């Protein structure tokens, strides 16, 4: 997704790291760049708003359940593999998380 306008921070970079922004898991300098991007780019701002709403809904509906630590570790491991390119993102959803991946 891109709005077609030039930005200091590219739309694809913003969308690739959107959940890090939403979860405040990025350095302040990067957060500032992303905030500026959202102020300039309405398609990315719309995507941010949608993802923020989904996150709030999930928290409200499922926020009371504790996630087993082994499941969390497996999911985080899978995310790291996807980010590193070892598993293509399009294949990640189809591949089951197995106990040997922990």
TrEMBL record:
InterPro entries, per the entry: Anit_sigma_mycothiol_RsrA (IPR024020), Znf_put (IPR027383)
Residue ranges of every copy of the Putative zinc-finger domain listed in the record: 11-44
Superkingdom in the source lineage: Bacteria
NCBIfam families (alphabetical): antisig_RsrA (TIGR03988)
Protein name according to UniProt: Mycothiol system anti-sigma-R factor
Organism annotation: Streptomyces tropicalis
Name of the gene encoding the protein in the UniProt record: rsrA
């Amino acid at each position: 997704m891109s709005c077609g306008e030039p930005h200091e921070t590219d739309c694809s970079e913003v969308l690739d790291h959107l959940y890090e922004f939403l979860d405040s898991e990025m350095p302040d300098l990067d957060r500032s760049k992303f905030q500026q991007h959202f102020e300039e780019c309405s398609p990315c701002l719309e995507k941010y708003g949608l993802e923020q709403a989904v996150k709030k809904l999930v928290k409200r509906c499922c926020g009371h359940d504790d996630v087993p630590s082994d499941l969390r570790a497996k999911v985080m491991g899978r995310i790291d593999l996807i980010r590193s390119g070892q598993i293509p993102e399009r294949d990640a959803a189809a591949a089951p998380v197995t106990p040997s991946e922990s």
